[in-house]
Each structure stands twice: as C-alpha cells, then as structure tokens.
Design brief:
By secondary structure, this protein is an alpha+beta fold. The protein has 14 helices and 23 strands. Strands 10, 11, 14, 15, 16, 17, 19, 22 and 23 form a nine-stranded antiparallel β-sheet that branches. Strands 3-2-1-4-5 form a five-stranded parallel β-sheet, sandwiched between helices. It has a four-stranded antiparallel β-sheet with strand order 6-9-7-8, sandwiched between helices. Helix 2 (51-60) packs across helix 4 (78-84). 52% of the residues are buried.
Length: 417
Amino acid sequence: MNILLLGSGGREDALAWRLRQSPSVETLLAVPGNPGIARWAKCIAIDPCDPKAVVELARAHAIDLIVVGPEGPLVAGVADAARAAGIAVFGPSAAAAQLEGSKGFTKDLCARACIPTAAYVRVEAEAEALAALDKFSIPVVIKADGLAAGKGVTVAVSRAEAEAAIHAAGDGPMVIEQFLEGEEASLFALVDGARAVVLASAQDHKRVGEGDTGPNTGGMGAYSPALVLTPELEARAMREIVEPTARAMAEAGTPFSGVLYAGLMLTAEGPQLIEYNVRFGDPECEAIMPRIEGDFAELLMAVAIGGEFDAPRLSDQSTMTVIVAAEGYPDAPRRGGLIEGIEAAERVEGVTVFHAGTARHSSGALLAGGGRVLAVTAVADSFANARARAYRGVDAIDYADGFHRRDIGWRELERQS
C-alpha cells in the first residue's frame, strides 16, 4: 500500500522506521518530514495542517492510508477532509480530537461517564480562576484548556505558584484540578468506535531536570513496558477508563478512531485519568515502536477502515529512549548546533537514533533545528541492559550544545535494586 505520514518529529521518525519494515508498504511519503525521516520516506514540504493540500497530495500519489503523527492536523480537521475524499486515515476526526484539544471537554466527559479522574473546576477568566483556587488544597494543578504539546500544565506547590500560573495564562479557558498522589504511566490503546484494545504501555519523564525537577517539557525520555502498570492495573484502566471513553464518544455521535493515549496516575484507589492524547506520545512512541511485531501498516489500516484487528504481538524485550535536547530547552532552545556521531551511536548494539528536531545544512552537515533534537533508543533483553545501551549511544554523540537527563527510568531502577 501507499502511505502518507504527517509530522516532523521523533515520533514520526519512529513511525516511519516501523512502517518501512512492514511488508505491505510499497510507497512511504512524509509531510514535511525531517532528515531522519528522509532515511525511510520521501519528504515533501507542505503544511500538514492544511486539509486541502494534504488531500491533493494524497490523490496525486494514490495514497491508500494517511497516518497522522501530531495532534495539530487532527484538530485542524485533516482526517475529516481525507475521509470525505474517500482516503483512509489513522487518526480521529476533529470532533473526537477534542479529547486532547480541550481538557475541559475531557473532564466533563469523565464526569458524565463516571470515569475516575481528579476533581476539577472549569474557568474562563483569570479572576474566576483565582477565586476557584479556594476550593482546592495545595499542591494544585493548573491546565491551559487547549493544545500545549505536553507543556501546558503547572503543578503548583504553593498558593503563590498557582496564582503565578493563572496570571501567566491570562484570560482564557483553564482547568483547575486536584493534585493526585501516585506514579504516572502511559497506556496506549487502538480504538475503533466503541471497541478498544491495548497496544502498549510506557513511562515518560516530563520534567526537564534530573530527579524530576524543573518545568514540564514535551518529554525527556521514556521506557517500555511500564512494569508499574501491572496486567491487573492495565485491565482495570481499560475497563474503567478507556473503554467507557470509547463508548461515550460513540454514543455522542463522535466515535474515536486511531490510537488513544491515556496518561494515568496510579493512586492508592486505583488508576485515574490525568489526560488524554489522541495520537502516539513523544517520546513514548520511540520506545514502543521497536516492540511491535507483525505488519504494522496492515494493523493501522484495519483500525482506519473499521476492519478486524487484534492487539499486536509485542516483543518481550525492553526499550529505553533518552532525549538529547538543545541547551535552553524548553524555554529558549539554542538552534544551529552541529551534530556528529550518530553513526557511532548506532554501532552500539540495539541502538537506533531517531531525529526529533534536526535540520540539514546546505553543506550536508546535520544541525539542531528544535528543542528536543535526538531520541536515542535502545532495545535489550532487560530494562537494565536497554538503559545501559541507550546511554552508551548518547555518549557516542558529539553535540556540544546538547544536554540530557542521566536518570531516565530511575523509578524502575530503584524497584529493581
């Protein structure tokens, strides 16, 4: 089949890498792609959030399936336009993408469907938000109600910090919610209407600094599987959170199709939903893709067209992804730094380096073009060995302007020590 992949980050590089291994794939295009994705696909420089341009390109290249990587094109209605043109899409409609596009929408759905999640209040303006703080104890969570690429959340540990977060957001919709105690895990499910099956689990590291300190980022590393999400907890999360969400969306006339990413807090009372994403997480996707066996493209097509599909076979191996970011990330990343040593990193057994934010200079040199620059991913027979390989890969890279956390997977390391 001919596939068009939308996106330009590390997630899309991992998706392209995995799709290129699918026997059913004949042609793979990427919009707009990046230098890493160009190893697996032909990259075409158009706007992935322009429904008309995407559909025209798909028609011109006889595309059978569009795979949407980031959330932006979904919220922009690209999937709707493609389906209207008779092209299969792996990714939800704009209406269903509200599960990520509006945190308030998702919290209200949880309330209606009795899905376990933190107590919350929706507000529309700064003064209303400040008044609503009185209903919550500290710590408290402040969320911008919109797309934020994983960074629109403040966990305020003082009243002053909460007020500062509200003031920074200004007038506009926000969600204020109860702080949940526990450990976070990510659960990915393939959803087609009211049907949902488990894809894989992972654990992300959102904070920029070691020891989970500093501001939230798009993610500084991940590993899979998330062993803290035991089979019993995974089944409970599917039964109490993911499956009721799929049914509620279908009953509302906005059925979900694609991958649904549930960010969970594993509390003493059981799994509770933190938030949904309506696409693969990044960097979780980089950690998950090497574990998926079989023809991945056929699986995505089956979900896209409402065909028969089962949960994919997963490798028993463990994976670890470490993000190498540009100095100054997430606030003001330094762009343009020279990157060398990727080939040396990939000579480490089990290591693949996905490009998250790179650019190719006219001279051919590889430069940093974003905040998160590389996603160094390793596969091994155990968590400890995958972790060791990933850091050997990171250490082989020569990128003077880069930094990374040395403690990815620290919770699992403590559990195993």
